[in-house]
């Protein structure tokens, strides 16, 4: 990975920390979630299990900051004393912002190629990839979703890109697929704070927190069984295969708090 960090120590009322990570995470086994989450298909061929981790996010940018407004007693502007100073002074703004690329998809075959006999991982196998066929649907070609685009009933996947493997064989699809990823994640949280000194030892702190302040929507889609596994039923859409039908993040929330420090 490549990690870059910029930091500004507190001065002129401002402090911030910005971190960017460009990375690639490979593994042949996942240690979290259930069997849909990049399961092992063939325990006797571990080499075929090497793929991107379900936690692989190539780009991740995080910015945190706090700025004390230059208002009130001892500040550059409105240097008032008494009641006016207590009302005008003590204000600050803080926030944290994150921008992250999506995680790779996990495609599971809905048809068990081992028939009535459970395979090494129960009745789950991976499909075969059809060479030359785009994996993304027309609705998700450029990384943005167009619900009115023609194709696979609002799915981000092109179901024709995979086929069910032959009887008693394993599919050649990778454990995770970086060609198709979940949607880009963007979020901004902002807080407005006011600290008022009552005495040398007592102060009151009021804060208003705006979570997802711009009310951004990160689309989620039906994985057909688990947050990280999409089930392919032959060449047809099964269990809403890759269909966008939910919000993948939380809508804007506003909360208020009051604290007495002594």
Care to describe what's here?
With 262 residues, the protein is mainly beta. It has one domain (2-261). 3% of the residues lie in helices and 39% in strands. The chain has 1 helix and 18 strands. The chain has one helix spanning 82-88, and strands at residues 2-11, 14-22, 26-27, 51-52, 59-68, 91-100, 104-105, 107-109, 128-129, 162-163, 177-181, 185-197, 203-211, 219-221, 230-233, 236-237, 244-247, 253-261. A 7-stranded antiparallel β-sheet has the order 1-2-5-6-12-13-18, covered by helices on one side.
The tally of strands reads 18
- How much beta, percentage-wise? 35-45%
- SSE ordering: EEEEEHEEEEEEEEEEEEE
Residue runs with pLDDT of under 50 for 5 or more positions = 223-229, 234-239
If helices are DSSP runs of H or I spanning 4 or more residues, what is the number of helices? Answer: 1
User: What is the residue-mean pLDDT, rounded to a whole number?
Assistant: 80
- Structural class label: mainly beta
Broad shape: elongated
Strand order, sheet with most strands: 1-2-5-6-12-13-18
When the domains are counted, the total is 1
Secondary structure: helix percent:
under 10%
Helices and strands, with pairings:
Blueprint: E1 2-11, E2 14-22, E3 26-27, E4 51-52, E5 59-68, H1 82-88, E6 91-100, E7 104-105, E8 107-109, E9 128-129, E10 162-163, E11 177-181, E12 185-197, E13 203-211, E14 219-221, E15 230-233, E16 236-237, E17 244-247, E18 253-261
Parallel strand pairs: 8-15
Antiparallel strand pairs: 1-2, 2-5, 3-4, 5-6, 6-12, 7-11, 9-10, 12-13, 13-18, 14-17, 15-16
């Amino acid at each position: 990975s490549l990690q870059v960090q910029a930091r500004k120590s507190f001065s002129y009322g401002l402090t911030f920390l910005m971190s960017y990570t460009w990375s690639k995470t490979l593994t042949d086994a996942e240690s979290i979630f259930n069997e849909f989450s990049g399961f092992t298909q063939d325990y006797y061929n571990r080499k075929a299990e090497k793929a991107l981790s379900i936690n692989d996010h190539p780009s991740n940018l995080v910015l945190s900051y706090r700025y004390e407004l230059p208002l009130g007693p001892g500040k550059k502007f409105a240097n008032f004393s008494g009641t006016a100073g207590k009302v005008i002074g003590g204000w600050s703004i803080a926030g944290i912002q994150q921008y992250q690329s999506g995680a790779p998809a996990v495609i599971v075959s809905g048809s068990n190629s081992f028939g009535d006999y459970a395979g090494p991982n129960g009745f789950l196998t991976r499909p075969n990839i059809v060479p030359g066929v785009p994996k993304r649907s027309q609705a998700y070609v450029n990384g943005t979703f167009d619900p009115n685009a023609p194709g696979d009933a609002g799915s981000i996947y092109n179901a024709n890109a995979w086929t069910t493997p032959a009887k008693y064989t394993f599919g050649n699809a990778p454990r995770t697929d970086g060609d198709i990823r979940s949607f880009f994640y963007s979020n901004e949280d902002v807080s407005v704070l006011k600290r008022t000194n009552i005495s040398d030892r007592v102060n009151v702190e009021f804060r208003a927190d705006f979570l997802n302040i711009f009310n951004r929507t990160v689309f989620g889609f039906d994985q057909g069984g688990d947050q990280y596994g999409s089930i392919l039923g032959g060449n047809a859409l099964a269990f809403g295969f890759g269909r966008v039908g939910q919000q993948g993040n939380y809508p804007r929330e506003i909360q208020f708090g009051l604290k007495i420090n002594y």
